[in-house]
């Protein structure tokens, strides 16, 4: 596709429920990132993939968060046993790698009730 | 510890005038800086970037200035247009890294 696509756009989860957020990066982009953006804040880094390899997951807030990119294209961010503090916009971005600009998707707004 | 700071949460400018958005950083290892624009309910859109080997980069109405000694960068928009009204984020990354550190954003409102 022309841009980074994320689904769903909005997700409401009951506390304790598992959720899966999907990201379709720009075709051919090697690098894929996940960021979390809380209300009134800038995006915060969660994890980074180069192709299928997860090279950095230092930003994942707890072991309830898990990300994968098995074929080096589509990525899924999974959150297990969601908590209210997980409520945020989850942004996916992709780039050609190196010091190049990353292109962001529209984000998934997760609300945990 | 906020490594990238945007100290002005909001800014209002008259249409046609210059908008100047500021950003300060603390990590002297940062070598690549970007500005993103964000409309409500959309993801951030890349605007312009600058490498630390430069002190200025220009793209149409947008110019980014980098002052390494002061650890400060700014985005100038001339002339400002109502469609520029959005939240602007600066971001930085360091050598050999790939993740961006973002500021908290400045909400720009351009008044017609």
Question: Can you offer a commentary on this structure?
Answer:
The complex is a heterodimer of chains A (113) and B (112). Chain A is mainly beta and 113 residues long. In chain A, 0% of the residues lie in helices and 49% in strands. In chain A, strands 2, 4, 5, 6, 9, 10 and 11 form a seven-stranded mixed beta sheet that branches. By secondary structure, chain B is mainly β. Chain B has no helices and eleven strands. Chain B has strands spanning 4-5, 10-14, 19-25, 32-38, 45-51, 56-59, 62-67, 72-77, 86-93, 101-102, 106-111. In chain B, the strands form two sheets. In chain B, strands 2, 4, 5, 9, 10 and 11 form a six-stranded mixed beta sheet that branches. A five-stranded antiparallel beta sheet of chain B has the order 1-3-8-7-6, with no helix packed on it. In chain B, 36% of the residues are buried. Classes of the chains: A mainly beta (113), B mainly beta (112). The A-B interface holds A 4, 6, 31, 33, 35, 40-45, 48, 50, 55-56, 59, 91, 93, 97-99, 101-107 and B 4, 31-32, 34, 36, 41-46, 49, 51, 89, 91, 93, 98-105.
């Amino acid at each position: 596709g022309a841009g980074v696509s994320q689904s769903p756009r909005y997700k409401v989860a009951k506390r304790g429920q598992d959720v899966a957020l999907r990201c379709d990066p720009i075709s051919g982009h090697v690098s894929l990132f996940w960021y979390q953006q809380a209300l009134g804040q800038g995006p915060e880094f969660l994890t980074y993939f180069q192709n299928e390899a997860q090279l950095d997951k230092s930003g994942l807030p707890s072991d309830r968060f898990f990300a994968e990119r098995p074929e080096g294209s589509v990525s899924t961010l999974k959150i297990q046993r969601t908590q209210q503090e997980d409520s945020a916009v989850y942004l996916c971005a992709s780039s050609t790698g190196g010091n190049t600009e990353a292109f962001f998707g529209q984000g998934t707004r997760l609300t945990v009730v | 510890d906020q490594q990238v700071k945007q100290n002005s949460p909001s800014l209002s400018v008259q249409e046609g005038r210059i908008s100047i958005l500021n950003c300060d950083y603390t990590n002297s290892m940062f070598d690549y800086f970007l500005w993103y624009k964000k409309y409500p309910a959309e993801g951030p859109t890349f605007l312009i970037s600058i490498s630390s080997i430069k002190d200025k980069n220009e793209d149409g109405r947008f110019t980014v200035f980098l002052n390494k000694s002061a650890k400060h960068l700014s985005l100038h928009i001339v002339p400002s247009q109502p469609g520029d009204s959005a939240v602007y984020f600066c971001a930085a990354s360091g050598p050999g890294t790939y993740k961006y550190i973002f500021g908290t954003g400045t909400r720009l409102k351009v008044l017609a």
